[in-house]
Design a protein that fits this description.
By secondary structure, the protein is an alpha+beta fold. Among the domains are: 212 residues, Zincin-like, CATH 3.30.2010; 133 residues, Neutral Protease, domain 2, CATH 1.10.390.10; 131 residues, Alpha Horseshoe (Zincin-like fold), CATH 1.25.50.10. The chain has an eight-stranded mixed β-sheet, with no helix packed on it. It has a five-stranded mixed β-sheet with strand order 17-18-19-21-20, with helices on one face. The protein has a five-stranded mixed β-sheet with strand order 28-31-26-25-33, with no helix packed on it. Strand 14 and strand 15 form a beta hairpin. The longest helix has 29 residues. It is globular, with a radius of gyration of 28 Å. The protein binds tryptophan and zinc ion. Zinc ion (ZN) binds next to helix 3.
């Protein structure tokens, strides 16, 4: 018998709760295996709720020990308690106090939701529905309450006791070896923002004075011995706080802001009010163990969680369908922060790469869903690239469409009108409609429709009339579960580039709304004509990636070469280089599959040479332009009947050709670009390291006498993780002679740092070559492998499934089988980690028939499992549908 699919939850079925919970008093006696939770709730019927209306609270694996109503124990006939539900059949009044005592076991909580332990530390994760694993509650985001939390634990093992809000009382419990702390959070919040932490942690203190002069105590709590790894995170926090004041006028609102780093965590981090809890990989850094990318990620995630204090916490979601209300907006805010801290174009390119590599395939496959879904079976499966990344793109388009001023006026209104509320996308959009006196009903389709629109473009220059005409059309390709689609509002930033590379001025035009350098495509087809254009310009469209669409522009190689060297929009310059490479990679892949002779295009090789030594581009931008589209990107572009082996060969062929032509030019970049002196994580220095390592990536396959030696030396002499890992990856992925020695050296050096060892696992799991499969199996039995640690699982298995296309999709089916087995194993322990790993199958139908049949077999095997979690059942059902 097969596990049942959970019932569908639908947006249209939303009903406000019959009762509110105004106050929550929690008394938590911490114990590793038997924690006693006493929750005292002030329950009030909503206007219109009749006396006697049943109160139904959510639970999940709970055991009720005591239940009192207004202080009096409730007879069994008046309630019904199961592990996942507590019903008070007939409350005697519409306002009463409920006292609920439950007992929970943190040590056996392997799902890492609710209260659990990570290396001895007690911690919680309540979003989305984890609070119900602590006590019975109206565990939904539209129930906002004021929380007071009393924690009690052994002083020796748990000297640190933290909860949301401000500390109001602490002391010893007399005549015991226990102590207690009472925390009060004055801001009403939904249960998903509740948190507590208790353990023996080191404290890294700092402080911040807000723009209105309020003193805020800042702390980062980490395992003892890791205090020196918190500097960058603290610095990032203070810069985030200042930036949010300066750019959005938003100040912090409690006396203390605490961050805790734990090593076992399902996601990146969590914005619990006043007590953010982080996956330690987004807190801890030093040059020895963290790469430049890690530093950038820490800065972004610290900012993201901090920014949630307003976008998410002060203003929260009415229901989980509105998840993008907080996530899309907060991702937009953290992207803007990083852009201000670093190079804006480089950040934009990185964000678009992520969008295209994660969100586009999601939107093109069986797991496609609108930015605001209308139905879900398991909400944990909707923390997706679509909700987060596409959600951020939609906010960015809103800014583009309205202009900066009206955008900020709309946001100000949103903060003023909805502070303290649990609200919706409609309410959010209404603020912009009001502030900008405009109608956003068509724009709202971005939240409703799944699928990436394809914008087709044709241009025509008429030398006699001196007109330049742009014909545009838009279409969303078929999405399962979406019958029809309507034309969206697509802001297209553009320029008309004259022969010398300058944008030419355009005045009169007909056919579409154009303001500044943005034209709005808001119909299925549209023709825009520019007058007084004497010579044919090149159209640079979708500058800065102004909308999350695919462009079908058919630019000639000549035009692309022109844009690659002349476009004054750095994003589109990068895009032109990528398009040239992509065209060639697709062509090469097809030839390889047909068994035909194939050689890379000289044009492409030439462009890579000019980019390398173009002084007008900063180093980070050059490094990005010199990065070939990934195997997954190429597969996506090809779209159907995909053969990952042919893609890998094509990509290697082009890389080697670039290397052969430019090895001499590369060498000085390898050696001289690398910054010397003490390590600094700033964007400029990191950019030079990136370019140096990119040059090394090519030089490594140049077959020069010294090429492998130079890689080895970079590895052995590196004084920072960025360089060390870049070289290690080359040694392992290019199967160089010294790879085993390097892996061993690395392991000996970093055995004590689990974050550094995650990189060691990942490097091996992503190595192309038939031997990797056995290697991954062996590594699963390595003493350092830990199936209970999500970071370790992701570094080995997720990276194999998503970062090693040829081995995951092996033609003997063993790659799929390995991942399927792992999913089934993990599912019993941690459904969220298992179902996330399972999504790596999502593009299975795009593979060639042999491979897709093998993938289907693996999926069916998972599907036939009797006791699949709700999370994995949902993903496997949708993936197969
Ligand atoms: N809200 C968190 C963020 O965006 C992410 C999150 C959602 C999460 N669910 C979670 C984190 C479960 C950990 C576990 O920052
Ligand atoms: Zn978030």
């Amino acid at each position: 018998m097969r596990s049942e699919t959970a019932p569908a939850i639908r947006l249209e079925d939303y009903q406000p709760p019959a009762y509110r919970i105004e106050k929550v008093h929690l008394d938590i006696l911490l114990d590793p295996t038997a924690t006693k939770v006493t929750a005292t709730l002030t329950v009030v019927g909503q206007d219109g709720t009749e006396t006697g209306t049943p109160l139904v609270l959510d639970g999940d694996e709970l055991k009720l020990t005591v239940l009192r109503l207004n202080g009096i124990e409730l007879p069994e006939s008046e309630f019904e308690a199961t592990a996942d539900r507590l019903e008070i059949r007939k409350p005697p009044a519409t306002s009463f106090e409920l006292t609920i005592e439950t007992e929970i076991n943190p040590d056996t909580n392997t799902k890492l939701m609710g209260l659990y332990r990570s290396s001895e530390t007690f911690c919680t994760q309540c979003e989305a529905e984890g609070f119900r694993r602590i006590t019975y509650f109206l565990d939904r985001p539209d129930v906002l309450a004021i929380y007071t939390t009393r924690l009690e634990a052994l002083r020796a093992s748990c000297p640190v006791l933290l909860a949301n809000g401000n500390l109001i009382e602490a002391g010893d419990v007399s005549e015991t070896d226990r102590h207690y702390a009472v925390w009060h959070d004055p801001h009403p919040k939904p249960a998903y923002l509740f948190a507590l932490v208790a353990g023996n942690l080191a404290q890294v203190p700092d402080e911040f004075v807000t723009s209105s002069g309020k003193q805020v105590e800042l702390n980062i709590f980490v395992e003892h011995g890791k205090e020196n790894l918190c500097g960058w995170a603290m610095d990032s926090l203070k810069r985030s706080m200042r930036w949010d004041e300066e750019v959005f006028g938003l100040e912090y609102d409690l006396d203390v802001f605490n961050i805790v780093a734990v090593s076992d965590f399902n996601m990146g981090a969590m914005e619990n009010k006043g007590l953010n809890i982080f996956n330690d990989k987004y807190v801890l850094a030093d040059p020895e163990t963290a790469t430049d990318q890690d530093y950038a990620n820490i800065e972004a995630v610290i900012a993201h969680e901090y920014f949630h204090n307003w976008t998410g916490n002060r203003i929260t979601c009415r229901d989980w369908f509105q998840l993008c209300l907080k996530e899309g907006l907060t991702v937009f805010r953290d992207q803007e922060f990083s852009s201000d801290m670093r190079s804006r174009p480089v950040k934009r390119i990185a964000d678009v790469r992520l969008l295209k590599s994660h969100q586009f395939p999601e939107d093109a496959g069986p797991l496609a869903h609108p930015v605001r879904p209308r139905v879900y079976h398991e909400i944990n499966n909707f923390y997706t690239a679509t909700v987060y990344e596409k959600g951020a793109e939609v906010v960015r388009m809103l800014k583009t469409v309205l202009g900066d001023e009206k955008f900020h006026a709309g946001l100000d209104l949103y903060f003023r009108q909805h502070d303290g509320e649990a609200t919706t996308i409609e309410a959010f959009l209404k603020c912009f409609e009001e502030a900008a006196a405009t109608d956003l009903s068509q724009f709202a389709l971005w939240y409703e429709q799944a699928g990436t629109p394809v914008v087709s473009v044709k241009t025509r220059h008429d030398p006699v009339q001196q007109t330049f005409t742009v014909s545009l059309s838009q279409e969303i390709p078929p999405v399962p579960s979406q019958k029809t689609s309507k034309p969206a509002v697509i802001p297209l930033r553009f320029g008309l580039i004259g022969p010398n590379g300058d944008d030419i001025a355009y005045e009169a035009h007909t056919g579409a709304k154009i303001s500044g350098d943005v034209m709005l495509l808001d119909k299925a087809r549209q023709e825009v004509t520019f007058n007084n254009i004497s010579t044919a310009p090149v159209l640079s469209l979708l500058r800065g990636f102004s909308a999350p669409v695919r462009l079908d522009q058919h630019l000639s190689a000549e035009d692309l070469l022109f844009l690659a060297s002349k476009d004054n929009d750095p994003f589109n310059r990068w895009q032109a280089v990528q398009s040239l490479a992509m065209q060639d990679l697709v062509r090469l892949t097809a030839l390889i599959r047909q068994g035909e002779q194939s050689t890379p295009s000289d044009d492409v090789i030439g462009v890579f040479g000019s980019v390398l030594s173009d002084p007008s581009l900063d180093a980070a931008l050059r490094a990005q332009a010199l990065t070939l589209p990934s195997e997954a990107d190429i597969a996506q572009e090809i779209g159907k009947n995909v053969d990952p082996d042919a893609i890998l060969m094509a990509r290697r062929m082009l890389r080697e050709a670039i290397s052969r032509s430019h090895a001499t030019a590369m060498l000085p970049f390898v050696t001289e670009m690398a910054p010397g002196g003490t390590y600094s994580p700033d964007a400029e220095t990191a950019g030079r390291r990136a370019l140096s390592n990119r040059a090394l990536h090519y030089y490594a396959v140049s077959a020069r006498d010294d090429s492998t030696q130079i890689v080895w030396e970079r590895f052995a002499s590196a004084d920072n993780m960025t360089d060390r890992l870049a070289a290690l990856t080359l040694l392992v992925h290019d199967d160089m002679e010294q790879k085993d020695a390097a892996l061993e050296m690395y392991r000996n050096r970093h055995e004590k740092s689990s974050l550094a060892m995650d990189k060691w696992f990942m490097t091996q799991a992503t190595a192309p070559g038939a031997r990797t499969l056995q290697r991954v199996r062996d590594l699963m039995n390595d003493p350092l492998y830990d199936a209970g640690n999500p970071n370790r699982v992701r570094s080995l298995l997720q990276s194999f499934a998503t970062g090693n296309p040829t081995q995951f999709a092996r033609t003997d089916g063993q790659g799929f089988e390995l991942v399927a087995e792992a999913v089934l194993q993990l599912d019993k322990r941690n459904p969220q980690v298992a179902s996330r790993l399972l999504t790596s199958f999502r593009s299975w139908r795009a593979l060639d028939p042999q491979r897709s049949a093998l993938a289907e077999t693996a999926l069916l095997r998972i599907s036939s499992c009797e006791e699949l979690s709700r999370d994995s059942r949902d993903i496997v059902d949708r993936t197969l549908q």
